[in-house]
């Protein structure tokens, strides 16, 4: 099993692995109006705690990584999951409304840096609800490609080469200190 250095450090933020003590924060975020585009959660804080207990088993096996986005306080969540031979999915991305504007781009840069350059993936696959217009636009600005769609979702691919271009475009936000 590989060991990685956490937290992942961005220019203004850090991504640290979720802990059981984060259950109430995650539950509150997932019940906010912004979470309407994410998979709905069932149950209360106790159910979220149980989900985290099960997640920590997958984390220990290197099958999934779930982070709290921090910038002095907890600002949001972001997760890597559905790991395939050469591709990873990321999501569970939700950021508090009161967060500074750079949190979204820095958290995306950090998650890509970790997945591409530490974990060694060549591409990312993910889906976004069509009605989540701001997030769809964000991914398109970053040059992610829609590879298919259904009635609810767009399905995107984003390569390691796309990430290199994204880093150049968003250079003022780059400073991800990832150590493998």
Automatic annotation (TrEMBL):
Taxonomic superkingdom: Bacteria
An example molecular function term from Gene Ontology annotations: acyltransferase activity, transferring groups other than amino-acyl groups
Pfam annotation, one family: Acetyltransf_3
Domain named N-acetyltransferase: residues: 13-143
InterPro entries on file: Acyl_CoA_acyltransferase, GNAT_dom
Annotated protein name in UniProt: N-acetyltransferase
Organism the protein comes from: Helicobacter apodemus
